[in-house]
Design brief:
With 130 residues, the protein is mostly helical. The longest helix has 27 residues. It is built from 5 helices and no strands.
Length: 130
């Protein structure tokens, strides 16, 4: 039991350190990676009929999208308005997947999240090279 706690404690400390020392680009990538993970977990929960679990993951995913929206500087970012619209659409898919228990919308949100994650990864890598 104590070994399990120390492993979890070490894992939590590592995660906190990784977040604390990450660049803004890496933090953004970490956030969208978690968005994808929430989407995957929500889809799996829906498929299993675990509506409470799906709800939990979909709400967390919505929170992430709202954070992405709030941190977006539409005027300073090229294509910022289009990205804001994409975030709004994604959030709407997540809400609909949750409220209507729509696996179609959950799948759509997951696909969009994966594309978004890949795009931000590529942008972060390009920025690191410069």
């Amino acid at each position: 039991m104590y070994a399990t706690r120390s492993v979890h404690g070490a894992h939590d400390a590592y995660r906190q350190n990784a977040v604390a020392t990450a660049s803004p680009a890496r933090l953004l990538v970490m956030l969208v990676e978690r968005l994808v993970l929430d989407g995957e977990r929500a889809v799996a929960a829906q498929q299993a009929g675990d509506w409470a679990g799906a709800h939990q993951h979909l709400v967390h995913a919505q929170d992430i999208v709202m954070e992405l929206e709030s941190s977006l500087d539409v005027d300073r970012m090229p294509a910022g308005q289009q990205l804001a619209s994409l975030y709004q659409y994604l959030r709407g898919c997540l809400v609909e997947a949750n409220v209507r228990r729509s696996s179609t919308k959950a799948d759509e949100a997951l696909a969009l999240s994966r594309q978004l994650c890949e795009t931000w990864r590529e942008a972060a890598m390009a920025a690191a090279v410069q």
